[in-house]
Specification:
Elements lengths: L3 E3 L6 H13 L4 H15 L8 H4 L7 E8 L2 E8 L8 E3 L3 E7 L2 E8 L4 E9 L4 E4 L6 E5 L5 E7 L3 H4 L3 E4 L6
Antiparallel strand pairs: 1-2, 2-3, 3-10, 4-11, 5-8, 5-10, 6-7, 6-9
Helix pairs in contact: 1-2
Length: about 180
């Protein structure tokens, strides 16, 4: 049985859910799924009105995630970042696709060398940009480097409402 939870009706969410359901229903490999969902998200990236004004405000205590839809094989989550907020270095339990609605998400990529991490790249993700990835090789840290509140839409290949998070592991190794 496929459990689905839609938190509330939101502009553009129904179309996204239908399109993503069609992709994941074909059961492509994780990386192929991430790229196909990224293509869909590029065509259907919603506006900031997918969140209420109070949801878009974020929190001074850290970035905030709003689960907009969750079912067994994928979740749609809006992440709100105030200026300067960042994640810890982490990886994910499943494939992920994200699109930037506002702000700038500066992403630093790392490789695990066993006893330390090495920076292997970065991306400066701006409004309208969409990307996707799948484990392994998805170790990263994300930082809102803009002066405005950032909002991004993330699609994860798992039910984050059941797991509590899309994070598989937090990395506390030194970076060299």
């Amino acid at each position: 049985m496929n459990r689905a939870t839609v938190i509330t009706a939101r502009p553009g969410l129904g179309q996204l859910v239908a399109g993503i359901s069609g992709i994941v229903g074909r059961r492509p490999a994780p990386r192929e799924t991430a790229y196909a969902v990224a293509d869909l998200l590029r065509d259907r990236l919603p506006g900031l009105d997918i969140l209420t004004p109070s949801e878009r405000a974020g929190s001074p205590d850290g970035y905030v995630s709003h689960v907009l839809h969750a079912q067994d094989d994928f979740s749609i989550v809006a992440v709100v970042w105030r200026p300067g907020q960042r994640t810890v270095i982490h990886d994910h339990v499943a494939w992920c696709t994200f699109g930037i609605l506002s702000g700038i998400e500066y992403e630093t990529l790392y490789r695990d060398m066993g006893d330390h991490l090495v920076k292997i790249g970065h991306a400066c993700n701006r409004p309208g940009e969409v990307s996707g990835f799948a484990p392994p090789g998805d170790i990263h840290m994300v930082h809102n480097t803009s002066a405005e509140v950032g909002v991004s839409l993330h699609v994860y290949g798992t039910d984050v409402s059941r797991l509590g998070s899309s994070v598989r592991r937090v990395y506390e190794l030194p970076v060299r």
